[in-house]
Amino acid sequence: MTTLDISFKPERAHLRRPKRGVIAERVVPQAVRGRYRRLKWTALTLCLAIYYILPFIRWDRGPDQPGQAVLFDMSRGRLYAFFIEIWPQEVYYLTGLLVLATLVLIWVNAVAGRVWCGYFCPQTVWTDLFLLVERLIEGDRRERLKKRGAPLTARRVAEIGMKHAIWILIAMATGGAFVLYFADAPTLLAELATGRASPLAYGWVVILTGTTYVLAGFAREQVCTWMCPWPRLQGAIWDPEALTVNYRDDRGEPRGSVKKATELRAKGEPAGDCVDCLQCVNVCPIGIDIREGPNFACINCGLCVDACDATMSRLGRPRGLIDYEAWANIERARRGEPARRRAVRPKTVGLALAILALAGLMGASLGLRQDAKVAVIHDRNPVAVRLSDGRTRNGYTVRLYNKAGSERAFALAVNGLEDASVEVVGDGATVSVASDATRELRVLVSASANERQPVAFVAKDLETGRAVTALDTFIPVEGGR
């Protein structure tokens, strides 16, 4: 079985890392047109539109509730996402979401390799945007390479200044949009523009402006190759049946010019379709040569496919010399065997079922959860107290959560003890809880039980009749926890 090599061992040249010189120098990719470049532009537009517009989408949650569709409300300790509201006590939903995202990422990797990295990763999206600005101002790859060592002129200084000014504006918009997810977007945007926002908001804008400017403007391929942990995982989860960008060397080798290939074929000697034009290398945003074999740094963006297809089209040769193809099929072609498509296989089916199961479980949990909750903590010192009439009293801290948008009244009762009496210190059996708030109560339960017994604290909504329950234990004086 073939695996990705993440070492510099020269004896495995077809699986080695990018050359040192390529990574050490800043890559200057060439513009390319084609189906996958159009897909990348579509993904870029979609991702940027979601990121910049989402904070301004409104969502009606009722009076005295935030009207922003997606909001990390730090003051209330809430996460709002349209009709979903996550409280701090429900952090397990965020954990489940992270696990679900990880499973989806692994499943996508099993089907199409690092396609997330090539199309939807924020580093890729903002790098593409910065490169677009650079090309529009300084020209394509050849022009930019010529200008690298050329003496500075007034025009060149103006180009550099304009490019960096636009980069900084984009980076500022990126940092500004990020903080809008943590407060009412229109209000905070006006405060940022007029200098009335908090120092914390300005601090985060500055931090994210700097990171965006540096990572998308200068680090680029170094982030995807050296800083991101995902490439390091490829050696463990890389799947030879996944549709990844590969070079069909059985068709392309031996390489040679069009003239040389024509002469070899006239003599009956083998000649490949690859003319060694290096367009696949020139357009690669990472600067690798996919013809050397699977490379852990390849982000599966498909730009080399577009470049190679364009060359093959000009030469009148069939497309697909470089294409999305399973590495297993590359090896089958070398042996003269037919290709097999195995998108549906135990690994992908198992991952898909796990994703559906987890998503269904989280959806059902969200759909069935109540907008009220009761939590109980038993006193630990003392655990129990003997009363003068011989009965035993246990103390509890009871917390009522009201997640609704209006004030609610709850009737508190204890089930499980035959002769229990309940006292809510400083309050009656009926307790009011403000909207979107919690209330902590001190509750004393007295009973004549002589052994441990489970008890249920029941808080019943007096308006709807629905009840929520929390279980704990009643402990006699002779017992202990």
UniProtKB/TrEMBL annotation:
UniProt domain 4Fe-4S ferredoxin-type: residue ranges: 264-293
InterPro entries given in the database record: 4Fe4S_Fe-S-bd, 4Fe4S_Fe_S_CS, Cyt_c_oxidase_cbb3_FixG, Electron_Trans/Redox, FixG_C, Ig-like_fold
Domain of life, per lineage: Bacteria
GO molecular function: 4 iron, 4 sulfur cluster binding; metal ion binding
Keywords: 4Fe-4S, Electron transport, Iron, Iron-sulfur, Membrane, Metal-binding, Transmembrane, Transmembrane helix, Transport
Record bears the keyword Electron transport: yes
Pfam families: Fer4_18 (PF13746), Fer4_5 (PF12801), FixG_C (PF11614)
Gene Ontology CC terms: plasma membrane
Transmembrane segments: 39-57, 91-112, 165-182, 202-219, 349-368
PROSITE patterns: 4FE4S_FER_1 (PS00198), 4FE4S_FER_2 (PS51379)
Protein name listed in UniProt: Cytochrome c oxidase accessory protein CcoG
The gene coding this protein: ccoG
